[in-house]
Each structure stands twice: as structure tokens, then as C-alpha cells.
């Protein structure tokens, strides 16, 4: 499946506060999907009520073992440090 970029309602990153208004993934993001902030590289979750929220401790543990998330975070963090 190809990656697509979707406009999403602007929402502040719960970690750094930067506004994120696009999402790239396999279709439009759904509640519970992970989001990686392009400004700080931290992972948040698309909330049911809209916007982004910090992951729960359980979600954090799952995300730590998701190699796709870790590879994307590494690429984003490399870009933010250049
Ligand atoms: Zn951020």
C-alpha cells in the first residue's frame, strides 16, 4: 500500500506544542493511530475526540517495539538535527 499525505485539522503536539496539520500514512489517520511530530520526533496518538494526545504507558511500550515507528523517528530526528 502506498503512503499518502492527508490534511488534518491543525492540532498541537502534546509534547512540544508545535502545530501538526498533515499526516502521512496508509490513508487518513483514525483514532488510536500513532503520529510522529515532525518538529520534535516524539510519538503521540490521534485522540477519539480529535487532536493528538500523549500515548498511555501501555501504548508507549508497544510503540517502543514497533520497528516502523522507531525507523521513522530516527529519520525525523536526523532531519531536525541538521
Ligand atoms: Zn512535537
Question: Quick recap of the structure?
Answer:
It is built from two helices and five strands, in the order E-E-E-E-E-H-H. It is an alpha+beta fold. Strands 3-4-5 form a three-stranded antiparallel sheet. A two-stranded antiparallel sheet has the order 1-2.
Would you kindly provide a written description of the structure presented here, covering whatever features stand out?
The chain has 82 residues and is of the alpha+beta class. The protein has one domain. Helix content is 27%, strand content 30%. The protein has two helices and five strands; from the N terminus they run βββββαα. Strand 3 and strand 4 form a beta hairpin. The mean pLDDT is 91. The protein binds zinc ion.
Name a few traits of the molecule.
82 residues; alpha+beta; two-stranded antiparallel sheet; three-stranded antiparallel sheet; globular; binds zinc ion
What is the gyration radius calculated from CA atoms? 12 Å
The percent of residues in helical segments reads: 25-40%
Bound small molecules, deduplicated: zinc ion
DSSP, total strands: 5
Q: Sheet bearing the most strands, described?
A: 3 strands, antiparallel
Rounded average pLDDT: 91
Structural class: alpha+beta
**Gross morphology:** globular
